[in-house]
Amino acid sequence: MEEKQSIHGAWASRWIFILAATGSAVGLGNIWKFPYITGENGGGAFVLVYLLCILVVGVPIMMAEVLIGRHARKSPINAMHDVAISSGKSGLWSMVGWMGVLAGFFILSFYSVVAGWVLHYIAGMGVGDYAAISSDDAGKAFEGLLSNPQTLLIWHSVFIVMVMLVIAGGVEKGLENAVKFLMPALFVLLLVMLAYASQTSGFHAGWDFLFHFDPSQLSWESILVAMGHAFFTLSLGMGAIMAYGSYMPKKTAIGTAVITIALMDTVVALVAGLVIFPIVFTNGMDPGAGPGLMFVTLPVAFGQMPSGQIFGFVFFLLVGIAAWTSAISLLEPAAAWLVEKFGWHRIPACIVLGLIIWSIGIAALGSFNVIADVKLFGFTVFDFLDFITANIMLPLGGLFIALFTGWMVKRQISEDELAFSANAWYRAWYITIRYITPVAVAIIFVFNLLDTLK
Question: Residue 47 to residues 113, 131, 165, 208, 218: CA-CA distances in angstroms?
């Protein structure tokens, strides 16, 4: 087949693509959610189930997104349209691309609010605000942050500008330069924090919490949790991976690249657990603190440990980088579509998109203070955006991508893009994406919807 070229440029190498896609996958959820659910669901036994779910849910869909993006060399909306037409199917399949791009758009609007909290804590750790802070005072400090719309607005605005600056530079000058610096920095900071945590008295307790092999703690609900996180952790269904795949070099093997990304994402999440939980156990705190773990429990722990403020600053800087690399992948699909559809330069495209996202984000941050009583179908604005994207748009997007690639796309297209050296590997992927993955994602969709609406 004749190779197409993206008007946006291309990644310089296979490893740049892997770093970029890993940056998209590694986000706030990796830092606290995955370690926590691992410890609560059987440790090492849960990790094995999770890896199996990655293989049957995450990897096949990620490969599908990458092959669609690389074949069309366009934004997700146009890529879905072009591949559908090339396969003799309706161009209305572009609606799946639309849903993914809009999901990423809405996610960024409230994700930037949470990332703003992280920026606030980076600054606070840097100036010593949390030195020797008590648990009550840490809780009050976090509550005070949420109740202050002016402070939230400042940090939300700063984060949106950070994202816009990267996207405005395009693939080579923006995205590529960012991931070449930010991802190695993230890995280095993670290793620094691991070395620090390994010297604490709670390291062995943290290790046991994460990796004890206890199949008796596994349940059907644990398997559903593993399936759900395997889907969401790889940034699937939101157009980000499809957009990044459109810049992927043709010579790069999609299968090995995607498996590498999945493994790196999992390793980062587990190492993050080995950073967080030893510190928590050293200070005799609750490892099941959920979202409050990062913004209440850990500041207290760092404030009470030798050199804790320094390493607290490093930790929140690490979290900030993870949030940044994820966020830029959320804006890229929409920016790429504006450039393709209307011939806009990236700078005005980013300004327009950034202002819209910033405006929606103001409503989201207001959910914690001035408009806390405003409800949409019983949800605050923040919770509604979270619900509609995580429980409806993303699972449906992943389900439709699996069905589209497995049943609608010409087999010649997927065979050419995947180009497995052994036909058995292609057949395994093809069977999985047609029969197993759609069922698994449908289960995730129904389970999450029912669980949220309880």
Answer: 30, 35, 37, 13, 11
